[in-house]
Amino acid sequence: MIKDFVYHRANTSEEALDLLDKYRDDCKIICGGQSLLILMRQGLVAPANLIDIKGVKDLDYITFDPEEGLKIGAVTTHRAVEKSEIVKDNYSILIEMEKNLASVQTRNWGTLGGNLCHGDPTGDPATLFTVLNGSVKLASKERERTIPVEEFSIDFFETVLEEGEMLLEIQLPVIPPRTAVAYDKFNLIENDQGIVAAGVSVTVDEKGSVCQEARIALGSAAPVPMRAKAAEELLRGKKIDDALLDAVGQKAAEEADPVADIHASEEYRRDLVNTLTKRMVRKAWEQARALAGGKE
Amino acid sequence: MAGMRRQPMSKKYHVINTPVHNVDGIAKVTGRAEYTFDVVLPHMLYGKILRSPYPHARILNIDTSKAESLSGVRGVVTGKDTLGVKQGIWRRYKELCDEEILAREKVRYIGEPVAAVAAVDEDTAEEALDYIEVEYESLPAVFVPLDAIKEGAPLLHEQAERNINVTRHIEWGDVDEGFKQSDFIREDWFRCSSQAHVCMETHCAVASYTPDGKLTVYTSSQSHYYIKVLLADVLGLRENDIRVISRYTGGGFGSKFELDSAQFCSSVLSMKFCKPVKIVLTREEEFMATKRRTPMFYYLRTGVKKDGQFVAKESRVFTEGGAYTAMGATALYLTGFFQAFPYDWPNYRFDGYRVYTNTPPTSAMRGFGAPQATFCAETQIDIIAKELGIDRIDIRRKNGMYAGYEVPGQAWIQSCGLDECLDKVDEWIKGKGDLPANNGIGIAAYGFMSGGIFNWFDTPYAFSSAVVQVNIDGKVDLFIGSQDMGQGSNTTLTMICAEELGVNVQDIRLHMGDTDKCPVDLGAWGSRETLMQGNAVKMAAAEVKKQILEFAAAKMSPNIVYDLDIKDGWIHLIARPERGLAFNDVVKEAIRGRDGQPLVARGHYTPHRKGMISPAYSFGVQAIEVDVDPETGKITLKDCVTAHDCGQVINPLGVQGQLEGAIAMAAGYGFTEDLPMDEGKILNPNLVDYKLLRTTEMPETTVVEVETYEPEGPFGAKEAGEGLTNPTAGALGNAVFDAVGVSINELPITPEKVLEAIREKDKPETNKED
Amino acid sequence: MDKIKLCITVNGEDHECYIKPKKLLVEVLRDELGLMGTKRGCNTGSCHACTVLINSVSVKSCSVLAVQADGCEITTIEGLADAAELSPLQRSFLDYGAFQCGFCTSGMLLTATSFLAENPEPTEHDIREGLHGNICRCTGYNSIIRAVKAVADGGYEEAADE
Amino acid sequence: MNLARHVFGTGDQGHKDWVNSKGLNFIELLLIQTMEPGNKGYKTLADLLEREAEQID
To answer: Could you tell me the sign of the dihedral formed by the alpha carbons of B756, B761, B765, B768, in that order?
Structure first.
């Protein structure tokens, strides 16, 4: 049963910040509410004040700049991203991820900002944004700060957001040339939360012969979306072959810090991390080389 | 008026086996169908149920004063406000009536009701639950049958020594001799998991007691008759002081023909406060505190000849009963019976034990013990076939049941299309050619009953009854006691009536779902409706038809050698169909002729001398194609065919729907659905963590109808819905076996288990383990 | 707790009511407006039986605060048929037997309605993905997919009668 | 033998008490029957029943 609360509708980010400042620890922000309302129904969250930013127009945008990269306003819905031409042209992997995120109904009303702030380690955006080296712009009445997405979540359903602070914008840098990104999750039911997710970005040299730079991010492999840095290290400057793929999968599995639950044991999650990482590295590597070779 | 008319269609049936719109269809696609979930009565209160957080505890004291003083709360009831009747659906056996619903002394599972609140709205009622103070004395609990049966294990019910609830023995032939004659003997242990029904409409009821001593209960049920009688027992009312209503039931699958906490608590509250009380279980309550599929621990010992001839089978099962008997006793018998299906076992022995445990009671669920049995049996048969190097179709054909076969001392098979089903599936498989690596096809053969013969409920009524009334305008009223929970019986039975009476489906007005207006039927369970209620409807329609034809014959006064029939609203001489009268005209005059009294007739059906189980059995064979990912163990369903003998198909659209629905549900049982527990607490009581198949997991489905004629069924029809749940888990497991060579003996077949088994197999030397 | 004013247009009719802010859209539709065709199958936003259209996109009415729909145009199952004239999807659902118990049907029809509006020429797999969220425990989905495909393939142009 | 099966099949209190009163343990017989191959539990009970029958006539 949802506990009663005082409802406040913010029409601008300005108003939202004022309200946040006013109610501090005694309030919660609702946007799409696809996750929050469930928590409220279960009585896990019972704010005295609810600040609705769903209608904040100045946070509903998707812009792209060849230098700056992509900027997504916090209240932009998943669907808007999924259908955006500029996203399609410059970050097609993002569309792939969105299409496999929950149901159309959820994507129609749910927002990216809300998804990140929920801090669920099974959430796809946080993991993919980590691969894409994205960052988030946070603001409170006092200050504004921008931090990497990979530092945003600090534990299960916990983020760095402080009292009076809210997420304004998601920023993704331009994807470097000769770089391919692959992302996938393992689940029994399509579009369901991933039992494990892996995202990989590989940048190859001009000749497409070695991997110059790589980023590997894992979802549901730890209490928060995580980078598999040691595994990345193995790839840098190397030509990727099956032996290396096995080593990278192994390494990522070692780095992972999975938690057992009814859906999978810790061991099985490590197995999945291993397999998924391998597959995503191979996929990204092949695509990146194709780009280098000018082929598709 | 008499005269010429277009030739009535010459084909055998004018309604049966033609696609007909569901008679409730328009109401359902326009959102007009009123379910119990939608019922709102004036001055209605809302109820909520307080449930035990302990798997096993003594109730020392319940203090409701704080809750009652809450504003908006009308009142609270506990076991003290009830007659304390221990009820159960196996009414013939006192010791099996063991559930109070509102516990007075002891709670035996997490989620057992201990109190119920009525308030002005749901939120207030829910809030009030926190203010009811229950003092418990926690008792040692036991959760697994094999522990519960041990000496010194905590006892759930004083009278049940070693927690043994029911035992079952089935035996024929000389099993021990049979094993002596066997060339090859195989032993296996299997574990079948539980499963939740997950009806989209959760259990709910609106009870309204009035000062004249009458109780009306709107409820989502599969058998209004059972609910009415069970309520009378526990409330101390007379059967007919209770009226149970609702035309629409949002899914049943076996979960809605026993008395549930929503029905009981809303009734008790309503009787106390003389106001309507509505209780709708939350999805979480539905998972934690309603009944579920029976988990089974199976042991199978099977002896065969070199050539695959079945010789002897010994099977033993311990079923996890949960805290109460429920329908579990029937599931125990049926799993033993169907363990031998659909084959001719010369020597067979079954010993089954249902054991009480401190978990939510297990009971009836679509297939009723047969899906578990079929999974174990079919899995083992494929292993045996492989070890003997015999084709899996051949070994089944060699041993399959056939029309005229008698299951010794148990049942007679009058119609059986198993062989043809095997041929059809064989063709389908051959048509697939070579499969890609890690793809495989698995098959399973199955059979099921068409309504149970047993009367543990101890009903004094006919198993099924129907009334048909023909009115002055030719419109027909059909009154039936059976319940349509989605399976489509309303349409099937209307079609049977239309066919028999020679009118069109649109001419019939169906009345059901109201115990005040409709005759008794035992309800929609055990695949009864088509055969049993169908026979009753056919009998009533035939009787009315006779009355009409008598009048028509008198009117037409044909040569006595001619006889009459009605088809498509046209009463005619069978030999000369163009000579006849319009149905409506004859009816009008006939009714005028009988002083304005409509033409009415009753029909009924009760099986006599039909064996121990059922009057008739459906058969079939299913094949499933899967793709297994050897690196993750993930199973993808690709394609599926089912060759199915349900006798004469009445409603093709209905049969296909039943089949596809059964596949989705049974495949879920096979590889995604489970109810893991920790100390008796279900860990995934929600639709996020309980994984049902969705549109994207459902494979293509092909149905091949193999028509036989069942002498016992209306127009030769038999069961076509529940039995379809039996083969899928087994076929799925066998497909994995075929794809990657590992056989999983434990449901559900999760990717984790598959991956583990693959690794086990790939180890240098695997030492086989049972 | 103070009630607040809510103005919504449902199936073309304007409604004004005063509600507690915590009321979900599905609760307002059913309890305030008596539109019982919209069902509820769970507490976790998982079953999608409560799907309605907000400004013609499909949304779970159990996962939206009614106040968030203030000023919006909402379509429920009661708004699909034009008086006695069933919508093409409603007719194809009848022809293909795309429902059994019927409890998920309202949500299924609304999801399919908005899906076809957005994807006039879907493949079968598109349809499966588009309806992925909606649980049906009875039909096994395939009849529903066939019914939606039939409409997409133009078998149910207005006034088409079979 | 069939009578033995009946006794186990119904397994109600009356039958249980009778078996126990004859110095056998109903449950133990059941367990033997289940845990060990060879139909032992039933044979033992069948023997008992026969002896009883003889005494009667």
So the answer is: positive
Check pLDDT > 50 for residue B770: no
Asked if B524 and B222 count as a contact pair (C-beta separation under 8 A), the reply is yes
**Together in a domain, B646 and B572:** no
On whether residue A1 sits in a domain, the answer given is: no
* Most C-contacting residue of A104, A107, A188 (CB-CB within 10 A), to test interface: A104
CA–CA gap between residue B19 and residue B41 (Å, rounded):
38
Question: Which chains have 3+ CB pairs within 8 A of C?
Answer: A, B
Amino acid code (one letter) for B713: G
Quick: pLDDT tens for C79-99.
999 999 999 999 999 999 999
Query: B154: which 2 tokens?
Result: 């905590």
pLDDT for A295: 45
Residue B188 touches chain D, beta carbons under 8 Å: no
pLDDT attached to residue D28: 78
For residue D26, list chain B residues with Cβ-Cβ distance below 8 A: 161
Residues of C in contact with B25 (CB under 8 A): 93-94, 99
pLDDT value of position D11? 58
> Same domain for B618 and B751?
yes
B469 and B593 share a domain?
Answer: yes
**Domain extent for D44:** 2-56
A238: domain range?
179-292
Q: Is the pLDDT of residue B123 over 80?
A: yes
Scanning every residue of chain A, which has its alpha carbon at the shortest distance from the alpha carbon of C111?
Answer: A105
- In this prediction, residue B769 carries a pLDDT of 47
Helices (H) and strands (E) in chain C — how many of each? 5, 5
Is B572 inside a domain boundary? Answer: yes
The Cα B410–Cα B614 span in angstroms is: 9
Distances (CA, A) of C70 to A21, A111, C4, C6, C50: 25, 18, 11, 6, 18
Domain-embedded: residue A240 = yes
Q: Residue B573: inside a domain, yes or no? A: yes
Quick one: average pLDDT of D10-16?
A: 67
B618 and B485 inside one domain: no
Mean pLDDT estimate for chain B: 95
The 10s digit of each residue's pLDDT in B707-721 is 899 999 999 999 998
Q: For residue C134, which residues of chain A lie inside 8 Å, CB to CB? A: 103
Q: CA torsion, points A259, A261, A263, A266, in degrees to nearest 10?
A: 40
B399 is in which domain, residue-wise?
A: 369-375+384-451+614-762
Q: Which fold has domain C88-152?
A: DNA polymerase; domain 1 (1.10.150)
Q: What is the pLDDT of residue B4?
A: 43
H/E stretch holding B277:
strand B277-280
Q: How far is A261 from chain B (nearest CA, A)?
A: 10
Which stretches of chain C drop beneath a pLDDT of 70? 1, 158-162
Q: What percent of chain B is modeled with pLDDT above 90?
A: 93
Closest CA to B323 of B369, B287, B356: B356
Nearest neighbour of B688 by CB, restricted to C37, C44, C131: C44
Distance from the Cα of B52 to chain D's closest Cα (Å) equals 29
User: pLDDT at residue B766 above 50?
Assistant: no
> Looking at this predicted complex, what is its ipTM?
0.95
What residue ranges of chain A have pLDDT lower than 70? 294-296
Looking at residue C160, its pLDDT comes to 45
- In chain D, what residues touch B176 (CB-CB under 8 Å)? 38-39
How many angstroms separate the CA atoms of B5 and A144, rounded? 88
- Find, among D45, D52, D35, the residue nearest to D11 by Cα: D45
Residue in B162, B168, B318 nearest the CB of D9: B168
Residue D16's pLDDT band (cuts 50, 70, 90): confident
Q: Is B441 inside a domain boundary?
A: yes
Distance in angstroms (rounded) separating the CA atoms of residues B743 and B745: 6
Of C2, C67, C133, the CB nearest to A106: C133
